[in-house]
């Protein structure tokens, strides 16, 4: 690892090692619920401790206060995999979305999907974060999910 990359990647690798994020079958293991709190998210983003795909989604959400379904799934399951609790996840998404819409609209149209990702609604499947291979295979538009190394142009990658 290049010296300038070590500072950026060090905290992420350390956190992954502590949480045991690498599991058999190429699927990321889920961290203990509550391992990451709502208050931790801005620091994780500021330290560039998130993978570029998640950082891009997080920044898009923070600037536009909305993500399309695929982006919400990708980022939401990633945050769940880090250990963000269901209550914190609902507060996170509600906090961003209600900057651009009424709270009752969020509760009616979006909260169900957050609970569904945690296995609390629908068929009660406890979903896991997307693997890199699944993210790379997605054909999402830039800023709405997928792999930035595949979807971003050269200027966008340089700015990221």
UniProtKB/TrEMBL annotation:
InterPro entries: DNA_primase_C, DNA_primase_lsu_euk/arc. Residues 46-158 form the DNA primase large subunit C-terminal domain. One of its GO terms (biological process) is DNA replication initiation. The keyword Lyase does not apply. GO terms for cellular component: alpha DNA polymerase:primase complex. Its cofactor is [4Fe-4S] cluster. Keywords: 4Fe-4S, DNA replication, Iron, Iron-sulfur, Metal-binding, Primosome. Pfam families: DNA_primase_lrg. GO terms for molecular function: 4 iron, 4 sulfur cluster binding; metal ion binding. PANTHER family: DNA PRIMASE LARGE SUBUNIT. This is DNA primase large subunit C-terminal domain-containing protein. It comes from Prasinoderma singulare.
């Amino acid at each position: 690892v290049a010296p300038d990359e070590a500072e950026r990647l060090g905290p992420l690798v350390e956190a992954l090692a502590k949480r045991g994020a690498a599991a058999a079958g190429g699927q990321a293991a889920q961290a203990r619920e509550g391992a990451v709190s709502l208050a931790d998210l801005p620091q994780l983003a500021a330290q560039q401790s998130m993978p570029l795909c998640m950082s891009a989604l997080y920044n898009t959400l923070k600037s536009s206060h909305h993500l399309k379904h695929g982006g919400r799934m990708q980022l939401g399951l990633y945050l769940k995999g880090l250990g963000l609790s269901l209550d914190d996840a609902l507060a996170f998404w509600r906090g961003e979305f209600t900057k651009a819409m009424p709270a009752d609209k969020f509760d009616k149209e979006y909260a169900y999907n957050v609970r569904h990702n945690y296995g609390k609604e629908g068929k009660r499947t406890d979903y896991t974060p997307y693997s890199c291979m699944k993210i790379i295979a997605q054909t999402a538009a830039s800023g709405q999910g997928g792999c930035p190394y595949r979807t971003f142009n050269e200027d966008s990658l340089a700015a990221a």
